Known about the structure:
Elements lengths: L1 H31 L18 H6 L6 H8 L27 H11 L13 E6 L7 E6 L2 E5 L4 E2 L3 E6 L3 E6 L4 E6 L7
Antiparallel strand pairs: 1-2, 2-3, 4-5, 5-6, 6-7
Amino acid sequence: xxxxxxxxxxxxxxxxxxxxxxxxxxxxxxxxxxxxxxxxxxxxxxxxxxxxxxxxxxxxxxxxxxxxxxxxxxxxxxxxxxxxxxxxxxxxxxxxxxxxxxxxxxxxxxxxxxxxxxxxxxxxxxxxxxxxxxxxxxxxxxxxxxxxxxxxxxxxxxxxxxxxxxxxxxxxxxxxxxxxxxxxxxxx
Length: 188
């Protein structure tokens, strides 16, 4: 009983869809046959052609029309339409005063030295034993040094001042100073 009701429902839906399709096809055919359609405007061609040729759809070759098109000379602006490139823009030269020109030339000849290399030492502790100068515990990578003020570390860095929170180091090769803060543990 249930199967019959489902098949009747499917049949009704199919009939309804078919009737809608038939009506839409009929409507489109009636509207294209000249029903209430508005007249369409056709733009005039840029080149005037004899209308009797177009209306008669004459398949013969008309040499007089071809001769007219051969006389037209193309004068482009130099742009290659087959390459995607921006057009060249001619910018007129700007007049610069002689004083400004000399300043620009002098600025171009100034040598600015590169910045000194960074000091990669890590300060991870200090020892303040009674009766001794304070010692700083420094590391660079896997290397560890214990140094006092005035000592040279790694034949490169001179320890200038040691305080509980930081150590001041001078790079002897590059004339560079840096204050390195205390870090937690040796990081390398």
